[in-house]
Amino acid sequence: MDKTSKTKKQGLSPAKEGWLSVLTGVVTGFINGLFGGGGGMIVVPMLTYLLKRSPKTAHATAILIILPLSLVSGLIYLAFGNFKWEIGLPVGIGVTVGGIVGAFLLKKLSAKWVTIIFAVMMAIAGGKMLFF
Prior knowledge:
With 132 residues, this protein is mainly α. It has helices at residues 3-10, 14-35, 39-50, 55-79, 85-108, 111-131. The longest helix has 25 residues, at 55-79. The radius of gyration is 16 Å and the shape is globular.
């Protein structure tokens, strides 16, 4: 199914889908720039519920969106002296390896399990931030 027929099926006009996509990008970029990450927790629900994409498509798209966004944000943090190589380099290597493993695992999981795992991880992260 091409993009046009998918859009019509969802009830979104191409113009509305375009504006919602830009809004999704602005909100995601703002959150990522403000907090130095975390754009995925915003972009996945927006792609899933606002733009009516499948959970798997939303997660895969989020990865592709977050990579350049994180690089730009990271360069800005680096320019202002807020980046610590001794932390950033090993974590960056771990994120790269974990991202590769996660991308392969995404292909094997059902959309239901991807959504459940994502929701549980967000709840754990939110609980940790609130109470610990």
